[in-house]
Amino acid sequence: MKPTDLGEMFTTGWTREAITEVVNKGIGHLTQSHLLWDKQLEWEMEMLESTTDDGNKFEMVEYVQRVLSDRLRQPHTNSQDTLQTYSTFTTNHKPPDQYEALLVAASKLRSQGQRAFERRENLEAALEQSGFSPEAYAHYLTVERRAKHPDTLIVSTTYERAIAEAAKRRFKGEVAAEQMLRMFWAGYCDALRILDVAWDTQLTILKRAIRSVPGSGEIWARHIRLRERLEDAEVEEELESIEGTLTRVYS
Question: Tens digits of per-residue pLDDT, 44-83?
């Protein structure tokens, strides 16, 4: 039973928001995002099946259908399984006369995501074959950033994957790992700036980069330049001083 002093925590709405936030962070990982999304769908279906109120059940059916439709649009390795799940869901929860039209629409949605995945399938395969080497990540990122219309989510996620791999190799003592880690962080910060990602997101990533590679002059330079741009734009936010950042990082 939920403790009364926790307010909205652990309510259905709060839980749904928390699960969605976690799942959304993994969407850009084309080969592993299904591990999170499958858990989300499992939870949503449990909520749906346990609902007895007809009005609430109708709303939940509509919501789960949107979750499935959104997933069909996304590039990932399990799109065929998602389409089959959508088909089963439609059979069980939608009027029979709507089935054909819904499946035609769902197939069109899936084709969008499938084409996006196919453009990256060889990159993912090369990454795995290389043992997820930093060099393979670097090639992957070069291709993504040179695309006519770069996908911000996939670029960000791929940088996060590359950084995690380089950090793991640095921990193991690999000689070149520190330099690769610095390179990925610098590239990540530059990509966010070029893609015009919100400044607070850029600042968050720069602060993480400073904690990860505090000896990188390139990262500190990017941090200072962003702060100067924000000051020039008179952004009305409280910014930590450079001295404060230095103290926090090195203390």
Answer: 999 999 988 877 899 999 999 999 999 999 999 999 999 9
Q: How confident is the model at residue 250 (pLDDT cuts 50, 70, 90)?
A: very low
Return the SS3 of 195. coil
Residue-level pLDDT at 11? 86
Region of residue 168 (phi > 0: left; psi between -120 and 50: alpha; otherwise: beta):
alpha
Q: Is residue 166 part of a domain?
A: yes
Tell me, yes or no, whether 12 and 54 share the same domain: yes
- For residues 101 and 25, state if they share a domain: yes
Dump pLDDT digits (tens) for 17-29: 999 999 999 999 9
Tally of domains in the chain: 2
Backbone angles phi, psi at 233, to 5 degrees: -85, 0
Together in a domain, 115 and 147: no
Closest Cα to residue 38, out of 82, 80, 4, 101?
82
Per-residue burial over 25-36, b = 16 or more CB atoms within 10 Å of its CB, e = otherwise: ebbbbbbebbeb
- The answer to whether residue 125 sits within a structural domain is no
The reply to whether 72 and 107 lie within a common domain is yes
Quick one: which of 158, 156, 182 has its CA closest to 169?
Answer: 182
Residues 215 and 188 in one domain: yes
Same domain (yes/no): 4, 113: yes
| Tokens representing residue 76 in the block | 């990932």
pTM of model > 0.90: no
Distance of CA 80 to the CA centre of its chain: 21
Q: Can you tell me the distance from the alpha carbon of 52 to that of 45, in angstroms, rounded to the nearest whole number?
A: 13
